[in-house]
UniProtKB/TrEMBL annotation:
Keywords: Membrane, Transmembrane, Transmembrane helix. This is TM2 domain protein. The chain crosses the membrane at residues 38-68.
Amino acid sequence: MCYLLGMAPTRKDPGLAAVLSLVVPGVGQIYNGDFLRGIFWLIVTPGFWIGTGGLFGWVCHVLAAWTAHRRAHWHNHRLPLGLPVS
């Protein structure tokens, strides 16, 4: 998609993506360029906090961080070598 917009693709930092999603689930996915996944986590997490009475909302934070980290690695493996991390 970056090529269509005239932008060069950039490598993503998996650690930063994980920390962003650990703090606010969905932000790490948006950082990676996965906008729909980010919106999903931004909607599901508050519902999970409220739906479980605050007991298991942390599960969404951990899962969102893990998926953001994994997707950042996946995006980086699809890019040509030698690109700087943004």
